[in-house]
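How it folds:
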Amino acid sequence: MNPVRISWSRVRKIALWTMAVLLVLVLVLAIAAVWAVRRSFPQHDGTLRLPGLSAPVTVHRDGHGIPQVYAKTADDLFRAQGYLHAQDRFWEMDFRRHVTGGRLAELFGESQVETDIYLRTMGWRRVAEQEWQLLAPDTKRYLQAYADGVNAWLADHDGGRASLEYTVLGLQNPDYAIEKWSPVDSLAWLKAMAWDLRGNMETEITRAALLAAGLTRRQVEELYPAYPYDRNSPIVTGGGIVAGAFDQHAVAPKPPVPPTPPTAPVTAGTGGGGTGGGGAGGAAATTQTIKAMGDGLSRLPIMLGNGGQGIGSNSWVIGGGLTATGKPILANDPHLSPSMPGIWYQMGLHCECAFDVAGFTFSGVPGVVIGHNARIAWGFTNLDPDVTDLYLERVDGDRVQVDGEWRPLETRAETIKVAGGKDMSITVRTSGHGPLLSDASASLRDIGVKPPVNPAGSPAPVAATPQLSPAHATNAGSDRRDGYAIALSWTALRPGRTADALFALNAAANWTAFRAAAALFEVPAQNIVYADVDGNIGYQSPGRIPVRGRGDGRWMAPGWDSAYDWKGFIPFAELPSVFNPADGYLVTANQAVVGPAYQRFLTSDWSYGYRSQRIRDMIGSARDRKITVADVQRMQFDNRNGFAPTLVPAVVDALDAADPSDSARVAATELWKEWDFQQPAEGDAGSAEGRSSAAAAYYNAIWRHLLADTFDELPAGNRPDGGDRWYEVVRGLLAQPGSPWWDRRDTPGVERRDDILRSAATDAAEELRRDQGDRPADWRWGRMHTLTVRNQTFGKSGIGPIEWLFNADPVGVSGGDAIVNATGWNAAAGYEVDAVPSMRMIVDLSNLDASRWIQLTGNSGHAFHPNYDDQFELWRTGRTLPMRWDRTAIAAGAAQTLTLKP
């Protein structure tokens, strides 16, 4: 048998041929990938046709893709804005309108049906449709012009030509077709904004959950300390309501008698409403209902924020008497959930009409939300009032009991379209208080059998919120239980005129016009700071805030007793307002709006004022040398931890008392010897910044372990998040070394304060040595405190290559929770950032061209576009961009100029 001869020459030829084929395939795939990515990139230069314009529109873009739009008429201006928003952000706009319409299943299939049921039950889109009828004629015209601009862009773009996301979506949902934009799509987005900034609903739920878990009312109240007015000033430091209007100069009246806590049973109405009502059954259902409601909230898409206390903002305005220019400086940085692209879109809108404005916009909404015009500037923070109440309703079929009488429920049918599946029909029921959220959840429908009521028939003193069950029912209303249901009363579910307010605010030229615009701003209720080129500064708190009958909104109310209904809303004239205060400045950072003597009830669940007081202190320390824009920029990036000066000495004393010669302890606590309590992400070894970062790493690790060890009796879903409410809780406990809170449940002994402080320090040092090495000087806060900016839709798909397409890489960031540079994190979950200053803006009213701005990522919504994340590193390191105003300077600095022609 002859041996097989191998022709190495032939092998080499085959190998070379194979490599060539593979190389060609790789090149083809690379070219295809580049084409798929780049084919949706918009044209930012040259000339494009935009039907419907009365005259050409000029668009100058700087190197960061920020457009400044110049038009002849308001209609042309907003038509162009719609076109430009669609160019850069249409996928984001399309996703947002599917959220607000409860239509996510049309995009992503069956997995989103439960979310759609919940959103359809609340009916955001229906309310927006009703609002359309209330708006001023000019507002309707501007919204329609904006929609026409969006649709003009859509006429030439579909599928992957619109955005890379549609190419990815086509892998799962190839039949999806983009529909035209409607003015109501813009209005509905305002409902999502209101929901994410809705106030203290989660706080009410948590209180109830703690009671249901077995804590006493006294224990719960210890976890919700009163606002520290003696240490942290409210926004408005004086005044009161006089003759039906707020007077900033009025002598503060005596504090009102606080509402009686609804602890006593409320007499139930007559005429039974079904089964249940016993104490044992109600108690069992209470815990289940609260958990179901809390879990359900977490399933809703996060558009701006999570509705919790970590979502806030800073804004302040400094009068000319304290500034180097003699004119005001206004600053604003809203703290919202991080997303890719960022929440905001920077833009200037200029026309030969009433609108000459620049600032931060929402894609999908015409006008500027936060910014300035030629005369005034304004900024927002969340007022955070209590604008949601939950009512336990007694129902029988499609009727509800009120004051002993049966009244019909409003009912409507909804059809949910499901990509790749069958349509689903649901029935939505609504009482006089609002939609029955319990109908939207399979687990909550059992409340009709085991309602959370006392034996007397009144609601148990607990709150609740809806559950979105993992496996949805085929018809959300088909197996509902009669007897009891839960209704949501929320100010944003009542049609209003907030869209009118946006245009009025953009055109306002003085304090009077500004307040008139603010009076139209109903939801979400905001703190608004004001400054003008004449040197005036001011503050106004607008919003639709309910006036309750019985109860204070902290617990679920009996829907069958009309005494608990809302009796109206606080008149705008009575809401706190200040013009040119004697202090010469105003600071809002979600702290208490006004002192306890104020005659109206807004809420008792404020942020505790650590950020606001730090800003006030920085302004006070700089006022003698006059404050500049550069000073304000440094203030916005201030990283000082306001509670560290209280906790660090307590930890050091506890460690010294145990073993002052412990070398490991000395090496770690030495970091604090000259710590300025700043929390930078990083810093070179031996530098002041590096030492501060190491000290911050050790401190925050201790803080996290301290909270876990001290409050181990709390249910897993309600463990401390580490925000400034917990600063106040721990502050009080440090003065009580023998408090039962210090004792751990998992040990046989009885721990006291110093035992827990030492244990937390030991555990923190072990964690840092394990993760960052044995040398404390080498520890860095930014290695723990990281931010990953994720795409709202595909960024958490679980598919690595798809996430890589759209997400930013994780990076370390400075700051922390309840810090001016508010990069929030949840101590119960880890150190990762979950809330950020979504943008930073500083307006110089002496020279608008000297103003500054930045946003989290970039103006473009197209992955891999140069402007997709080109602002991120600037934002991360506390830098800003020029916020140009003068047209000559804008044109001279333009990187691209686009002309839109009729």
